[in-house]
Fold this protein.
Amino acid sequence: MQFRANICTKFKKDSSQNDIYFSWLPFSSMPSTFQSLVKQSLKTTWQIIAAGRYEGYEKNVFRIQGFVAGALLITVVDLAVQLLFNPYPYQAKRLATAWATAVLAGFVYAWIVAWIDRNEKEPWHMLLVGLLWGAVVSAAIAGLLNSIAPRLIGVELATMAPFTEELTKGAILFLIFRYAANEFDDALDGIIYGAMVGLGFATAENASYFFRYDPALDIGQQMQTFQFTLRVVLLGLAGHATYTAMIGLGLGLSRQTSRRWLQIVLPVLGLAAAIFAHALWNSRAVQGIFDRVFNQPHAWDFWQAAVRVALINGPFVAGVVIATNLSLRQEAEVIAAQLADELESNHPYISPAAMLTAWGRLRARRQILWRRGVVAWWTLRQLQRAFVELAFCKWRGKEQSAIRQRIRLLRSRLDF
């Protein structure tokens, strides 16, 4: 058996295999749910676009959150039904194990991505929306399209998936970019949101692969181990998280430019890069080259799988990492420049040394936690975030009175 057949089981030549793509994701026992999700997605998107013509359209952020929360509720209920009322307890146990493993791995990587955003942190509820959109909405709609489109237009699933999956993942990034503009300011924001959406999608996809192989069988146990190694260890941040981060990067860069043509071109380039990177990994021709180089090696060799990931996805990962570092450096320069006249050199916790760098802020929080306890630590944490927000408000020319009032309140609590 060739390596590519084991990496991408969903891409088997037998077209009947398309029916089982995402077959054990939630909603699988309720086919009508796919249709209702697609219908509601289109309806909600139209309402958001239409409402944008009127004042108060910021309520669309809550509409997005409500839709994602509703889809999550349907997913949880459907999954609970499959687990509690499954006539085959062993299958229910396998399903629960597959989802628990995938979700745990997904949250570990989500924590890493959230940690990277250490200057102007995005609201946790918006990050959660991205994560859940990828795992629930995008996975459901892409799964439906991937099972139908190859038959309708005669295209292989390996060719179709990059388009359906990246477009459905990118949809939420566009909605956040357009209707939650205050939370989507630059390239780093786009990378963070994109990575979260990709991790959510990867969680759902990983669960389907983990469930597919029965660990009671020798071949099933080996394949489960290999799938975990490939999808969690090697592709954890180098797969869907990187693909969708490139879409977010394009949107974020367009936010930072005033040139109209770049505002149009950059998001398109980000989406094209994501589709291209995804298609390159799925390509039978590319995987076939490695098969010939390795002379059809043992299907579960870790190092050969690592070489494939490094050479195919590595350049795209490197690009996202470079963009992330440049964005972090730019944010640090903004904070240093805008807060130069706002800090007190003699204050132990809001001096330049304690406030202008991420490590300085972390060190100050550790000191106050040790000396004054959890309440003071929490207050300083909120004060640091308020100062960072003030820096970016000054940089973007936004209203500062509310954030300055919050800083005064937090300082009074800290100095008490």
Summary: Residues 124-153 form the longest helix (30 residues).
